[in-house]
Design brief:
2 copies of one chain form a homodimer.
Chain A (H helix, E strand, L loop, with lengths): L4 H14 L8 H8 L3 H13 L3 E4 L5 E4 L8 H8 L23 H17 L14 H13 L6
Antiparallel strand pairs in A: 1-2
């Protein structure tokens, strides 16, 4: 069982942006810091913007910032908005052809389990998962790692 | 978010076999009844056997049966044994390279959510999801469907 890459990356992007409340962050720097695909992050950023979790400023010097304070961004709401579907089994989908539909009780049990899963996230906000410390903490960790493994990167 | 095909098919296979306690069931008939891949079901059956949920009898007239009564087969235990991993986000995996590891609290929150999800299944056994009615109910539904849509199949 896995969450989609969209949700995984969305959480990490929000955590990074939350650590830099004093400035706009760019997709390029988030991709560099986490060493993940810039193309994928563009999709994630677009979706986060559509869902109202971040605001983006276009043009030179542009970037993104949180649309709400971290303690107003509920993680359950973020997960629900980023997962494309919750078709845990075939009988959840619109193309369901299982012949047991209507007579078996698996669907109800899986639905209950899914709601329990999401309620766990509902109990937390972005403020609960932002690493402690000042603004550039993640960036500094990245720099230390790059120095340690001897990589050279050009932004 | 999705469960793997292994878990989805395992649940359906167990439900079918539970409906026929008086005889051995074959992979071919389960594949035909649910209209799903026989090759995939072979892998599922093998795994269910390894995990001790079913017993298989080889040779002509062979097939499979439940290794325990349906009310002794816990769904939480089945899900745990069939899912290849529960790496809901990158930081769950052995190849985790996220630089926030050790300082962020997302992993703990995702772990709690996963445990809530599994506990929901722990509260149920196979007996809870077997459709009511006598033995060949699924097979009869299949026959009715095939008749209705005008398909002709050779076993």
């Amino acid at each position: 069982m896995r969450l989609t890459m969209m949700t995984d990356y969305a959480m990490r992007l929000l955590m990074y942006v939350a650590q830099h409340p004093d400035r706009l962050c760019t997709i390029a720097e988030v991709a560099r810091v986490y060493d993940i695909s810039e193309a994928h992050l563009m999709k994630v950023t677009h979706q986060l913007g559509l869902n109202g979790w971040i605001e983006t400023v276009r043009g030179k010097g542009g970037g993104m910032r949180l649309a709400h304070p971290p303690d107003r961004i509920n993680l359950g709401a973020v997960v629900r908005s980023m997962e494309s579907d919750f078709q845990l089994t075939e009988c959840f989908g619109s193309s369901n052809q299982c012949l047991l539909t209507g007579s078996c009780r698996l669907n109800g049990i899986v639905q209950d389990a899914l709601q329990s899963f999401l309620r766990s996230f509902d109990a937390h906000t972005l403020a609960d998962i932002v690493p402690p410390g000042s603004g550039g903490e993640v960036g500094r960790m990245r720099e230390r790692t790059l120095t340690r493994v001897g990589k050279v990167r050009v932004a």
